[in-house]
Amino acid sequence: QVQLVESGGGLVQAGGSLRLSCAASGSSLSFNAMSWYRQTPGKQRGWVATITRSGMTNYAESVKGRFTISRDNDKNTVHLQMNSLKPEDSAVYYCNAQGGRFPWGQGTQVTVSS
Q: How much is the average pLDDT of 58-68?
Protein backbone atom coordinates (compact mmCIF):
# COMPACT_ATOMS: atom_id res chain seq x y z
CA GLN A 1 0.00 0.00 0.00
CA VAL A 2 1.54 3.28 -1.16
CA GLN A 3 1.24 6.34 1.04
CA LEU A 4 1.51 9.91 -0.24
CA VAL A 5 2.38 12.73 2.13
CA GLU A 6 2.06 16.34 1.04
CA SER A 7 3.80 19.15 2.88
CA GLY A 8 4.93 22.74 2.50
CA GLY A 9 1.61 24.53 2.65
CA GLY A 10 0.94 27.53 4.82
CA LEU A 11 -0.30 31.08 4.97
CA VAL A 12 1.23 33.55 2.56
CA GLN A 13 0.36 37.01 1.30
CA ALA A 14 -0.62 37.61 -2.30
CA GLY A 15 2.44 37.76 -4.49
CA GLY A 16 4.39 35.42 -2.25
CA SER A 17 5.75 31.96 -2.88
CA LEU A 18 5.47 28.46 -1.47
CA ARG A 19 7.12 25.17 -2.38
CA LEU A 20 5.04 22.06 -1.89
CA SER A 21 6.49 18.59 -1.57
CA CYS A 22 5.03 15.16 -2.07
CA ALA A 23 6.81 12.15 -0.63
CA ALA A 24 5.87 8.56 -1.31
CA SER A 25 6.49 5.40 0.65
CA GLY A 26 5.80 1.86 -0.42
CA SER A 27 6.14 2.56 -4.13
CA SER A 28 8.46 4.23 -6.60
CA LEU A 29 7.02 7.34 -8.21
CA SER A 30 9.46 7.07 -11.09
CA PHE A 31 7.16 4.65 -12.89
CA ASN A 32 4.29 7.12 -13.05
CA ALA A 33 3.36 10.48 -14.39
CA MET A 34 2.59 12.58 -11.33
CA SER A 35 0.10 15.37 -10.86
CA TRP A 36 -0.88 18.04 -8.38
CA TYR A 37 -4.54 18.75 -7.68
CA ARG A 38 -6.32 21.26 -5.50
CA GLN A 39 -9.71 21.47 -3.85
CA THR A 40 -11.65 24.19 -2.06
CA PRO A 41 -14.77 23.66 0.08
CA GLY A 42 -17.84 23.12 -2.04
CA LYS A 43 -15.87 22.58 -5.22
CA GLN A 44 -14.64 19.56 -7.10
CA ARG A 45 -10.99 18.63 -6.95
CA GLY A 46 -9.26 20.22 -9.90
CA TRP A 47 -6.11 19.42 -11.80
CA VAL A 48 -3.16 21.79 -11.48
CA ALA A 49 -0.09 20.29 -13.13
CA THR A 50 1.45 17.06 -14.38
CA ILE A 51 4.98 15.85 -14.91
CA THR A 52 5.62 12.73 -16.96
CA ARG A 53 8.22 10.06 -16.39
CA SER A 54 10.43 11.78 -18.96
CA GLY A 55 10.05 15.18 -17.31
CA MET A 56 7.56 16.77 -19.66
CA THR A 57 5.17 19.14 -17.90
CA ASN A 58 1.66 20.46 -18.39
CA TYR A 59 -0.20 23.11 -16.41
CA ALA A 60 -3.69 24.37 -15.94
CA GLU A 61 -4.14 27.75 -17.61
CA SER A 62 -4.85 29.36 -14.26
CA VAL A 63 -1.36 28.57 -12.95
CA LYS A 64 0.73 28.56 -16.12
CA GLY A 65 3.73 30.83 -15.81
CA ARG A 66 3.49 30.94 -12.03
CA PHE A 67 3.78 27.30 -10.91
CA THR A 68 6.50 24.79 -11.70
CA ILE A 69 6.20 21.05 -11.13
CA SER A 70 9.34 18.97 -10.72
CA ARG A 71 10.39 15.55 -9.54
CA ASP A 72 13.37 13.87 -7.93
CA ASN A 73 13.22 10.17 -8.62
CA ASP A 74 16.21 9.40 -6.40
CA LYS A 75 14.37 10.87 -3.43
CA ASN A 76 10.98 9.62 -4.58
CA THR A 77 9.48 13.08 -4.33
CA VAL A 78 7.47 15.52 -6.42
CA HIS A 79 7.43 19.27 -5.88
CA LEU A 80 5.34 22.25 -6.84
CA GLN A 81 6.98 25.66 -6.77
CA MET A 82 4.27 28.29 -6.54
CA ASN A 83 5.16 31.91 -7.25
CA SER A 84 3.10 35.07 -7.56
CA LEU A 85 0.38 33.48 -5.48
CA LYS A 86 -3.15 34.83 -5.66
CA PRO A 87 -6.04 34.48 -3.20
CA GLU A 88 -7.80 32.24 -5.69
CA ASP A 89 -4.94 29.76 -5.34
CA SER A 90 -6.09 29.03 -1.79
CA ALA A 91 -6.98 25.35 -1.52
CA VAL A 92 -5.92 22.00 -0.16
CA TYR A 93 -3.28 20.64 -2.51
CA TYR A 94 -2.91 16.95 -3.25
CA CYS A 95 -0.51 14.89 -5.30
CA ASN A 96 -1.17 11.60 -7.03
CA ALA A 97 -0.23 9.55 -10.04
CA GLN A 98 -2.06 10.26 -13.25
CA GLY A 99 -5.54 8.85 -12.99
CA GLY A 100 -5.42 8.83 -9.19
CA ARG A 101 -4.07 5.31 -9.07
CA PHE A 102 -2.72 5.74 -5.54
CA PRO A 103 -4.73 6.36 -2.37
CA TRP A 104 -5.19 10.07 -1.73
CA GLY A 105 -3.11 11.64 1.00
CA GLN A 106 -4.16 14.25 3.52
CA GLY A 107 -3.15 17.14 1.31
CA THR A 108 -1.54 20.37 2.43
CA GLN A 109 -3.41 23.61 3.02
CA VAL A 110 -2.42 26.71 1.09
CA THR A 111 -3.98 30.00 2.12
CA VAL A 112 -3.21 33.19 0.24
CA SER A 113 -4.32 36.45 1.81
CA SER A 114 -4.88 39.69 -0.05
A: 98
